[in-house]
Specification:
It contains eleven helices and eleven strands. It is an alpha+beta fold and about 375 residues long. The chain folds into two domains: about 100 residues, Phosphorylase Kinase, domain 1, CATH 3.30.200.20; about 230 residues, Transferase(Phosphotransferase), domain 1. α4 packs antiparallel against α6, α6 runs antiparallel to α10 and α10 runs antiparallel to α11. About 40% of the residues are buried. It holds the Pfam family Pkinase. One of its GO terms (molecular function) is protein serine/threonine kinase activity. It comes from Mycolicibacterium aichiense.
Length: about 375
């Protein structure tokens, strides 16, 4: 793993390794999210390996609420083929040895299927990233689309899409599948808003990957707002698979500067026209295009321009410039587009192999 991508370690993580919690023994530390620590673990009753996410003891009330909410959403999304499986959840009072001092703690935890890694690990090393076949990249992207599709059909938005939240699992037939994980920032949009409107202006996920409406203090809390934000996230996943960086990092650069401008706009009740950002995005996408195979470049660029349009409503599917008569509650349309990209790339590879074989036969 690239040392720049080593997981940040919570102060509590070393003290929890080896601890028995809820019938599971905590093993090696894997990663830290916004408010939870993830470890490998072992089910003490079955010896089966798993992953356990523990709420950081330094949490606040909002962290605890979002951790509980993640468990509820994972339970709602149970048995979805491209969302991480929740195996167990609970809380337990334990005593932790912290530098020789016994500290009583009430720990909340979620137990999930253990992944073999995350998609961002495939792009961490420049050499292995360059060698990663584009067919594999597109299959990983399609798996992520399927996960978001399944979430949207269940009225759940992710709101924090990036390759580090796309896990790799061994599926049927030994094939590697992508499963969406880290639902701590997710939202069940079948329920009313749980926070004041102002708390949605800046979004809930990693600002390095945030859509522009959340950087410029224009985020909303309707179903369409959440869906459009996820569409940007899905487009950014493809950009990340092409370049190693998310769309926002390439097009906007400093999210901090953008957010500062958004705060200033909000203070004077000024709503910036996000369509003015299109030239920046188009220049960024021209850079992205150079990393995409020529066989699919045109279609992929068109798709990225749509999904990552700075104006949220422009990301939605259209037929002849108009919304489709039959709304797509999921992402059927985008799955079809991904299949076309994969098909075009696969057919071209077959043609190349056939023509090379023919040339070899003629040469002999």
């Amino acid at each position: 793993m690239d040392p720049r991508r080593q997981p940040a370690v919570s102060n509590w993580a070393p003290a929890l390794v080896g601890l028995e919690l809820g019938g599971y023994q905590i093993g090696p530390y894997l990663s830290k999210g916004g408010f939870g620590m993830v470890f490998e673990a072992t089910n003490l009753a079955t010896s089966a390996p798993c992953a356990i996410k523990v709420l950081d003891p330094n949490h606040n009330a909002q962290d605890a609420a979002e951790f509980d909410g993640e468990g509820d959403l994972l339970a709602k999304l149970a048995r979805r083929s491209h969302v991480i499986n929740l195996l167990d959840s609970g809380s337990e009072n334990v005593e932790v040895d912290l530098r020789g001092i016994k500290v009583p703690l009430a720990l909340k935890y979620h137990v999930m299927a253990l992944a073999s890694g995350s998609v961002d690990e495939l792009i961490a090393n420049p050499v292995t990233f360059a060698a990663l076949p584009w067919v594999d990249r597109l299959h990983h992207w399609r798996g992520a689309i399927m996960g978001v599709h399944q979430m949207h059909l269940s009225k759940v938005a992710h709101r924090d899409l990036k390759l580090s939240n796309c896990l790799l699992m061994l599926g049927k037939g030994g094939k590697t599948e992508v499963r969406i994980a880290d639902l701590g920032r997710s939202k069940d949009f079948s329920l009313p808003p749980s926070l004041p409107p102002g708390d949605y202006y800046f979004g809930r996920g990693d600002n390095q990957f945030a859509p522009p409406e959340y950087l410029w203090c224009q985020g909303g809390f309707t179903e369409q707002d959440f869906r459009c934000a996820d569409l940007y996230g899905v487009g950014s996943l493809l950009v990340e698979l092409a370049t190693g960086h998310g769309m926002t990092a390439i097009a906007i650069g400093s999210w901090q500067a953008a957010q500062m401008q958004g705060v200033q706009d909000h203070r004077i009740n000024f709503r910036r026209d996000l369509s003015a950002l299109r030239p920046k995005y188009h220049r960024a996408i021209e850079h992205v295009a150079l990393q995409i195979p020529t066989q699919i470049r045109r279609e992929a660029v068109q798709l990225i321009r749509q999904l990552c349009d700075p104006v949220p409503s422009e990301r939605l599917p259209k037929i002849m410039g108009k919304p489709p008569k039959d709304p797509d509650d999921g992402l059927h349309w985008l799955l079809r587009r991904a299949d076309i990209l994969i098909g075009n790339l696969t057919v071209d590879r077959r043609r190349w192999k056939y023509s090379r074989k023919a040339r070899n036969m003629n040469a002999s």
